Amino acid sequence: MRGPARHDGEAGLTDEDDRQRAARVFDALGAAYEKAFAHAEAHHRSLEWLLGRLAPGSRVLDVGSGTGRPTAETLARAGHRVLGVDVSPVMVDLAARQVPQATFRCVDVRELPLEEGSLDAVCVYFSLLQMEREQQSSLIGRLSRTLRPGGSLVLATVPLDVQGVDAVFMGQPVRVTSFAGGDLVDVVAGAGLTVLAEENVLFTPDHPEAVPEPHLFLCCARP
């Protein structure tokens, strides 16, 4: 995930390994994660783009909803029906208390029943980085199919060509897999989505152990 890569990770890890590792990291970070990313202007710009496309009362899925801020809170305050999912019980508890207008569930999105064409929008902010590339591609395709025609998907990641490397993020050990920016655009296009806006920024989280990291935001639509 965010932070400098250290060395190759172990092979043969399961979805349950990924889930437990991610839950431990974000249980430990809790509200510190929200504080560290509160000044992420590109994140807020992508939310403004999304708000401009949504009809009143739209159904939105927030994948990796964290503390609920800013994504679920911004969308719920605008009157949209938001479901946030996260594997971290600590994050889900924080989100439920901070954003009571939305609904939150502690569940791996890969195990969440999703009906095709049932959503107006999906948000995926930095929540794929602890999955293998095949899993990321498969999930993006599945999320694309949950969108109604004309629906929107906003995706943010750290655009690096890395697979299964160990790193340190805000003092926590993480194992990261990601795509280079152009490769991720290809994955999104292969899922049947059109990229309508793209922004690359260099961002430094507000944390004493943080380092500058590249961020890529893709604003996409299902034709």
Automatic annotation (TrEMBL):
Q: Return any one Pfam family short name.
A: Methyltransf_25
Give any single GO term for biological process: methylation
> Which protein, by its recorded name, is this?
Class I SAM-dependent methyltransferase
Identify the EC number(s).
Answer: 2.1.-.-
* Species for this entry: Streptomyces sp. 900129855
Q: Which residues form the Methyltransferase domain?
A: 60-151
Keyword Lyase in annotation: no
Q: Does the keyword Methyltransferase apply?
A: yes
Q: What class of enzyme is it?
A: transferase
One MF term in GO for this entry? methyltransferase activity
InterPro entries per the UniProt record, alphabetical: Methyltransf_25, SAM-dependent_MTases_sf
Keywords assigned by UniProt, alphabetized:
Methyltransferase, Transferase
